[in-house]
Specification:
With 369 residues, the protein is α/β, with parallel strands linked by helices. Helix content is 33%, strand content 14%. It has twelve helices and eleven strands. The strands form two sheets. An eight-stranded parallel barrel has the order 1-4-5-6-7-8-9-10. A two-stranded antiparallel ribbon has the order 2-3. Strand 7, helix 8 (242-245) and strand 8 (257-263) form a beta-alpha-beta unit.
Length: 369
């Protein structure tokens, strides 16, 4: 089905640069974001004032339930007739493989889809489940608590890790339109750090080292000319107040959006924890002038047929979020999916969610630029 655009917002493109700093040169330099990145940030910040938020889905156009690699396909689109307004992809293991990711998606395909999403008016986000550079195992290997220290300046893996960051920057810079415009994207490194299941997690490094990891990442991207990136800070639901939420916050100058990753296992616990996280983020967002979002969420297999309108929406609608993104629909793992597909019990409720004037999908996005 086709969706009729529901509102028009006139948007001013910010032409001035945002100041940053590069401690690698031990002096202050003015670092600008591209005009396209500034426009993306302007949109992220302006949506809540319109009582709208974007719906997002991870790996949406590259595979789904019962299909893999088809062109112009999406489980979300198959259900409601439109692509998500926000798509996310993961760069994990590209630093090792060179041409594909840990989910066996070719970088060429991701590049193509990010450009297509941008040209249809949508946005894209990147996470990075980077391998453990000390042990050679995956990002979930937490057997050694010195990994972050090893990649910082003076560490045994510092040079190797800078090379990995250069590969990430090179790929980001290669995502360009036909006329050479670098597509702006939201980069979300070092996520869910308030848990301890990744080698950069809460119990695996000090707050100072975590912040240093973030700043090193940001500065290396800038040195590589990847000024089309926005940056998202996204803990889990562990922080119970703003002090805990900001304990490892790397700085206003290198963060554009703050988020939370929250998944449902028990409904009551999910509603309570997501509500608390969003309450904290609303406070922090106002104080630090940052956009806020639910950067990852979902209910695996969505066994509740009314989950979209009766669980997710009642929490999200209370807060000024820019987007809400659910995780992927795996094609290689049974019962590991977070968005509906045709025939799924929650598909009808998802269509109601889609038709809600507060939700934005890709077809709506051209009207707000």
């Amino acid at each position: 089905m086709m969706k009729i655009p529901r509102f028009i917002v006139t948007m001013m493109i910010v032409g001035t640069g945002l100041a940053g700093c590069s401690s690698r040169q031990n002096n202050e330099t003015e670092i600008t974001k591209t005009s396209e990145a500034q426009a993306m940030l302007k949109t992220l910040k302006s949506l809540p004032a319109q009582h709208k938020f974007m719906f997002g889905h991870h790996d949406d156009p590259v595979y789904g339930i019962g299909w893999d690699g088809d062109e112009n396909r999406s489980d979300v689109k198959d259900v409601c007739g439109d692509y998500p307004a926000m798509m996310s992809f993961d760069l994990g293991r590209m630093e090792i493989f060179g041409d594909k990711t840990l989910d066996n998606v070719k970088l060429d395909r991701i590049r193509k889809e990010v450009v297509a999403q941008y040209e249809r008016g949508g946005m894209s986000s990147f996470s990075w489940h980077v391998d453990n550079p000390l042990t050679g195992k995956d990002s979930w290997d937490v057997t050694d608590s010195t990994v972050v220290k090893s990649v910082l300046p003076g560490g045994v893996n510092h040079d190797k890790f800078l090379g990995w960051l250069d590969k990430i920057a090179g790929f980001m810079n290669s995502i360009q339109t036909a006329d050479g415009v670098k597509v702006p994207v939201l980069f979300r490194p070092w996520h869910e750090h308030t848990g301890s299941w990744f080698w950069w997690g809460q119990n695996l490094c000090t707050a100072a080292d975590y912040k240093a990891l973030w700043r090193m990442t940001y500065e290396r991207m800038q040195e590589n000319g990847a000024t089309q990136l926005l940056y998202a800070y996204s803990p889990g639901t562990e922080p119970k107040d703003s002090t805990a939420y900001l304990e490892r916050y790397p700085g206003d100058d290198i963060v554009d959006l703050i988020g939370v990753d929250a998944y449902q296992f028990d409904r009551e616990a999910y509603v309570q924890s997501l509500d608390n996280a969003l309450r904290i983020m609303e406070q922090v967002g106002k104080a630090h002038q940052k956009a806020i979002a639910v950067t990852e969420t979902g209910y695996e297999t969505i066994p509740d047929s009314l989950w979209w309108t009766q669980t997710l929406m009642p929490v999200v609608e209370k807060y000024p979020v820019s987007y809400v993104l659910v995780w992927r629909n795996a094609r290689e793992r049974e019962n590991h999916y977070y968005a509906p597909y045709p025939g799924h019990p929650s598909a009808a409720d998802f269509v109601n969610f889609y038709n809600d004037p507060r939700t934005l999908f890709a077809g709506d996005m051209k009207t707000i630029k």
